[in-house]
Amino acid sequence: MQRLWGQKISDLAFSEFVEILEWVAQKKGKSVVYIDRRYPSSTTCYHCGHVLEYLDL
Fold first, then answer.
1. DSSP 3-state assignment of 44?
2. How many domains does the chain have?
3. Looking at the domain assignment, is residue 9 inside a domain?
C-alpha cells in the first residue's frame, strides 16, 4: 500500500513542479520544451546539432 501511495505522491510533486515551471516561463515570456526521455541530449552539440555516434566515458 505504501508503495502505491509513494508513487502517487511522487507524481503529484513532479506535476506541481511542472505546473510552476510553466507558470514562471509564461510570466517571463519563455517556453517549456518537452523532449522524449530517450533523446540523445548528452551526445548532441547544442550549437550545430551534430550527434556523436559513440561517446567515450
1. strand
2. 1
3. yes
Cell representation of residue 6: 509513494
CA-to-CA distance for 30 and 49, rounded, in angstroms?
21
pLDDT digits 0-9 by tens, 2-42:
566 566 666 678 888 888 889 999 999 999 999 888 877 77
Question: Is 55 part of a structural domain of the chain?
Answer: no
- 19 domain-assigned: yes
- Global confidence as pTM: 0.54
> How far is Cα 7 from Cα 45, in angstroms, rounded to an integer?
35
Q: What is the widest separation between alpha-carbon atoms in the chain?
A: 49
